[in-house]
TrEMBL record:
This is CDP-glycerol glycerophosphotransferase, TagB/SpsB family. InterPro entries: Glycerophosphate_synth, TagF_N, Teichoic_Acid_Biosynth. One of its GO terms (cellular component) is membrane. Pfam families: Glyphos_transf. Gene3D superfamilies: 3.40.50.11820. One of its GO terms (molecular function) is CDP-glycerol glycerophosphotransferase activity. It comes from Propionigenium maris DSM 9537.
Length: 341
């Protein structure tokens, strides 16, 4: 009940700020061309948002990041009235998780956001929608997005079937993939990264995987979700907090249904999906081959991967673009000067 009351009060507060900023925007001196980026509800700069921010900044454009704790002159405090004013003065807005990345609580009032207008809004995602089913989450974005970035025709079809209008879907690719070298220097290392699951299932799966990997000669690194509390009962030599480093370096990923898999596929690295309980959006032979449902299957499949010298041919259908120009395409979608459908 307390949470419900808090959510309602936060929504009322943000809605009031939005209306006031809307009414006052004409009285405030016009700003030069500027852009606003938000991610992870203001808690951190996620990979896609950070990559796009750096790209826009490299063009000499004025760009601001929305953060709970501002980190410099190009950072706006999330929820501040100043950020609401800047929102209406912006030439465009990009966000990776929810419209709440930009304006707190306003993802729950999409019709108000739509009615008041403002800059064009681009949802740049923080992954790829392909495996894990997130229908309600995707539908919730409908009224707070003008353009919805996807990476392939398959993903576009999935998102359209969920309920996002086709005209909003743009085949542009993820900005963070621009940072992955085309010919990456693979380290013979296995990276384990699972999506968060409530209860003991998450840790039990990690331990099952680790038990198998201890029998290989490959170094193993394991990233534990920040929702995990208390004693992990896992040797610290296996743990890492630098997910970006492991994504760039490891030659094999073991996950359940994390879209980090697409970072590995992007430049031809192997992925094994361990015990994905949920149905996926597509029944694809390339992906199904990489599913295992037990420790024994994991052990056998890992041996096949290693015996094959980690060679993998990723189907073109998983990516529309593999040219390191995703950030450019995402930024230029606002100019409507090229065909992106």
């Amino acid at each position: 009940m307390k949470k419900l009351i808090s959510d309602v009060l936060n929504l009322i507060l943000s809605s009031t700020k939005l209306f006031l900023a809307f009414l006052l925007k004409g009285l405030i001196r016009e700003k030069p061309e500027s852009y606003i980026i938000g991610s992870n509800y203001g808690t951190k700069r996620s990979d896609n948002a950070k990559a796009l921010y750096n790209y826009i900044k490299s063009l000499g454009k004025e760009v601001y990041f929305i953060e709970d704790i501002p980190t410099g002159k190009n950072s706006l405090k999330r929820g501040s009235f100043k950020s609401f004013i800047y929102y209406f003065k912006a030439s465009g807005v990009f966000y990776s998780h929810s419209f709440s990345d930009i304006l707190p609580s306003m993802h729950k009032a999409g019709m108000i956001v739509k009615y008041l207008g403002g800059p064009k809004k681009v949802f740049i995602q923080h992954g790829v929608i392909f495996t894990k089913k997130i229908n309600n989450y995707v539908k919730s974005l409908k009224n707070t997005v003008d353009y919805f970035v996807v990476s392939s025709k398959l993903e576009k079809k999935i998102v359209e079937q969920i309920g996002i209008p086709e005209e909003k879907l743009k085949l542009l690719g993820l900005p963070r993939h621009d940072l992955l070298p085309e010919n990456i220097k693979k380290t013979e290392k296995i990276f384990v990264f699972l999506t968060w699951k409530e209860g003991s299932l998450y840790l039990s799966k990690l331990r099952e995987i680790l038990e198998v990997l201890k029998t290989t000669d490959y170094p193993v690194k394991l990233a534990v979700h920040n929702m995990v509390k208390g004693d992990l009962d896992i040797d610290e030599k296996y743990l890492t907090s630098d997910i970006g480093k492991e994504v760039r370096e490891a030659s094999i990923l073991i996950t359940d249904d994390s879209s980090v898999a697409w970072d590995f596929f992007y430049n031809g690295r192997e992925v094994i999906f361990y015990k994905s309980e949920e149905e996926w959006y597509v029944d694809d032979e390339f992906l199904e081959y990489r599913k295992v449902n037990s420790q024994e299957e994991l052990k056998d499949h890992l041996k096949k991967v290693i015996d094959n010298n980690l060679k993998i041919e990723v189907p073109m259908k998983l990516f529309e673009h593999r040219d390191s120009n995703n950030s450019e395409r995402v930024f230029e979608v606002l100019n409507n000067n090229r065909e992106n459908n």
